[in-house]
Write a structure and sequence with these properties.
The protein has six helices and five strands; from the N terminus they run βααβααβααββ. The chain is mainly alpha-helical. Helices cover 57% and strands 10% of the residues. The chain starts with a strand and ends with a strand.
Length: 125
């Protein structure tokens, strides 16, 4: 399973609904884009130190998925598909969707706009 930024945030805040989804998965992954978005949010949080410590522990057990050359091909395909359909999504979510499609792993996200991306599976909590 791949976590988006909201999923990562809720997991680290130990939200009950997400804990059920994540603990039932055998493994989970975090796109590098999500890690950057989350760390930006931490800079603004009054719970920064606590959440940064939790993040560091989590990073020992997850795979951070990078943007690779193949990701750029998938990104371009998705962006063209969404533009033609008239259903654009936020830029960072395009990159997340590209990683999800590239690795063919379900995405855990509350963002329904991912449902407009052909070839990916979105789970929610």
């Amino acid at each position: 399973m791949i976590l988006d930024t909201t999923a990562l945030s809720d997991f680290l805040k130990e939200e009950p609904g997400i804990k059920r989804n994540v603990t039932s998965s055998t493994s989970f992954n975090i796109p590098v884009i999500v890690l950057g978005e989350y760390r930006f949010g931490l800079r603004l949080s009054k719970y920064r130190q606590i959440l940064e410590e939790k993040l560091q522990e989590l990073l020992k057990d997850v795979q951070v998925l990078p943007i690779e050359e193949q990701t750029t091909v998938v990104y371009a395909d998705i962006r063209c598909e969404l533009k033609a359909a008239g259903t654009p999504i936020p830029e960072n979510d395009l990159w997340i969707a590209a990683i999800v499609r590239q690795y063919d792993i379900p995405l855990l996200s509350k963002d329904r706009h991912f449902d407009n991306v052909r070839g990916i599976s979105r789970l929610s909590w």
